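Quick illustration, no need to memorize.
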Amino acid sequence: NNNGPFVIRYEKINIKYDYSKASLLKIGSWSKIKNGNDATIITYGSFVNKASDIIDEVGKDIGIVNARFIKPFDSEMFGEIVKLNKPIFVIEESMKIGSLASHLALEIQKYNTRSKIIPISINDEFLTHASRDELLNMTNLDNESIIKIIRDTLK
């Protein structure tokens, strides 16, 4: 039940969606796409589809979570992820400051864990006008850059 304002963010790119699997969602719930033993990727939007390709290239057992709600967030699932004591990569096409990753970095302090939030997002700086792909490359949100960050972290 949500009695306050509600925002839905639609991306500018086309995302494949199987409407035959449509169902009602609990507000604030996340969806676990894949379990993993080495780390977890928390992401949303178009990066959910990209995450599978990324972990295939990394070659590690990495879980994927679709954080389809930012606020409220799924504190129960986040608690389960934190208890794994593995790195948590938060990949988002958003500014680091005020992002899901910054919120989770505050939340993780409530736990006694070795897990660490690794934000993969946009630094607080001005960017020039460019195509989406060029902007992803400039901000290290292209697949190759993300793969390198994850591999370097999991060495």
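Helices lie at 46-58, 75-82, 100-107, 132-138, 143-154.
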